[in-house]
Amino acid sequence: MCELKRALDAKGNSVLEMPTGTGKTVTLFSLITSYQWAHPELGRLVYCTRTVPEMSKAVEELRKVIDFRVEVLAKELDAGSEAPKGLAAGHILAVGLSARRNMCVHPEVSKEGDRERVDEMCRQLTAPWTREKKTASCVHFEKYESALGQQSQLLDTGIYTIEDLRVKGMDKEYGWCPYYAARRLIQASSVVVLNYQYVLDPKVSLASSLGGAPSLPGGKMRAGGLSSIEPSIVVFDEAHNIDDVCIESLSVKLNRQRLDQSSGNLTRLGNEIERVKKEDASRLQEEYKRLVQGLRQAGQIDEAMADQLQSPVLPEDLVSEAIPGNIRRAEHFIALLRRIVNFCRRYLHVERAQCEGPLSICHKLEEDAEVDSKSLKFCHERLRSLLNTLQVSNLEEFTPITKVADFVTLLGTYSQGFTIIVDPYPEAQGIYDPTLILRCLDASIAIRPVLKRYQSVVLTSGTISPLEMYPKILGMSNVVATESFSITMERKCLCPLIVTHGPDQVPISSRFSLREDPSVVQNYGSLLEQLVQTVPDGLVCFFTSYRYLEQVLEKWYETGVISRVLKHKLLFIETADVVATTYALNLYRQACDSGQGAVFLSVARGKVAEGIDFDRHYGRCVVLFGVPFQYTLSRELRARLEFLRQHYDIKESEFLNFDAMRQASQCLGRVIRSKRDYGVMIFADQRYARSDKRSKIPDWIRHFLEPGHVFMASDLAVEAAGNFLLQMSQPFEEKTGVGASVLTPQALQELQAEGSKASDSKEMEKSAIFAPPLKRLKLNLSTPPDPPSSNLDAVSKQIW
């Protein structure tokens, strides 16, 4: 909290690592919401998560914090203190927002499982021209529209999860659409919880709705909402892969099939333009007038069509420019896109892979297709305007041509930070399917608008080491706080082990030169066989890739390892199929619940490694078979490594080690989900014993790594794991007073009282808002505080 407050006071950014399960989310909400209450001019908190379950969990944590705050303030008010400032004695408005598929309550639309199909059906029911013709409508959207006309705010202050809004939508008293209601409530909310994409991805950005300070009841804006740097706070939770999210949001892939579909889209748009010319020519004329005035007017697409999306792809100086005259007329714009599609088709006719920069491709477009490079920058907005003018509801059908427009818009806007790769054999040797890839190399491009727009940006995760790498690759300046916090436990609940060789002294590693070595695969199989006989309940194993997993499984099946493992535990495997993997996970949990136990073989960077928790008996041991390096011969990776070396002076080996170890740490963190959980972490590769790898393990894991557990044989590691699990299985009476890892309110008061005896009155005045025993936190004191009194126990001294 002190590090976070220091960053907020300085109006700067921070990168904070805190072990999972130790209260990271509730700490963030407690400090920031209190800071908002103490500083009414501060804007909203935008809390970004990766998945819907994480979002729901975060909103529930926020509800607990605010309920506690309201309760405490009510007691203080009853005791005769002054009435607290702020909304209704501590109450706030907070909402969660997700895609239509997760929020829709329409009886027919909500049955569809496909996201694109749900979006398409929703637009067909809510488009203004559809409602005017009364051909179809959504009763929930109609109630939303009528509710907006009757009242300025749809809901009273409170904390609303996605499920809460869906319940309101199905309630007869309210009945409005939860999705559009949530988008409306964002403008008046103090806290917004949503997905990364709504902030980082320019195609779905909510910059217009999230900007400024939350409005007060009655629609009035708080002071400070119109400044160039908005006094709002953005938190990216689980931000260990945020650079990959930024890069993916600005990368586009095109192949021959997509280009063929784009040609079909252009033909249909051309026919639609001719039809509108005959039936309602004034529509096209009005659009032309708007385009002359500039992009800002042209981009005001109807909310039902484009959801008030603003694209931060374009720099601010282009937004006010008028669209070039050669693409203002709809038919001229279609002709331009057709020339671009034909150029891409010709460009794909290659036999060898090649890479080029944006300027080189723009020059070829000017020479071969007679396309002005300035026109490319406006293709995205121009296409959106045309689709709106033609009253196209089924936007998903025009995804191919939209991708082409995104491709050339990025191509014409940025001369650096991108590369164009043409790969004739993207999947496997012998299958000719040329792919045109516009690959973003600079993650800072996507997050730059966020850093410029908001006062403070906080990156946090349980596995975000090394901290200094993220500000560098994201272009974060004014970073006030970078700190990795350890974990306080009443007993040693983690047992990390580094296995470097088998009983036969043969080194074990997943490096490419040793993958075919039978002794390595045999030692890995022997390690798994011994673990299933030692570890109770769930055992989770991670491999470096699907290909390596299949290769090892094939050898294990031939040598009988699989059959011997199945005598002790059931075996489940993650596949590339999400449905099959989900089914396997459910069966794995059932096997663990039944007491039989199971083994789950997974892949680093896969679905399980990123979003599935194996808490309690579902994961008593996690094994990493190898170091999860990226495929180093990938052309996209090679281009990014070259860019990082040239622009950020980051060596290839440095970034590859950083990327591999953050993925490894993420896999290991799956089994520890609370301070009372315990588990064994096994690094099964000799390279983990090297200092360049070991130093990048998060501090809270490395703290438990004993010197004797660094260079271990597999049989000794299994023995150490058995002893640890035997010790942890013994009855344990948790402490409830001072010295416990989770303090009760009474224990906290005891700790404060003991600390008060160890500090003089002057020191207390300087640090009145913090408990004296916690003075190890940075308080900017002119002189160091006195040491604690001798009557403090060992845990309190450790906190000191």
TrEMBL record:
Its EC number is 5.6.2.3. InterPro entries: ATP-dep_Helicase_C (IPR006555), DinG/Rad3-like (IPR045028), DNA/RNA_helicase_DEAH_CS (IPR002464), HBB (IPR010643), Helic_SF1/SF2_ATP-bd_DinG/Rad3 (IPR014013), Helicase-like_DEXD_c2 (IPR006554), P-loop_NTPase (IPR027417), RAD3-like_helicase_DEAD (IPR010614). Residues 780-800 are annotated as: Disordered. Keywords: 4Fe-4S, ATP-binding, DNA damage, DNA repair, DNA-binding, Helicase, Hydrolase, Iron, Iron-sulfur, Isomerase, Metal-binding, Nucleotide-binding, Nucleus. SMART domains: DEXDc2, HELICc2. It catalyses: ATP + H2O = ADP + phosphate + H(+). Its cofactor is [4Fe-4S] cluster. It comes from the Eukaryota. Residues 1-288 form the Helicase ATP-binding domain. It is found in: Nucleus. Belongs to the helicase family. RAD3/XPD subfamily. This is DNA 5'-3' helicase. It comes from Durusdinium trenchii.
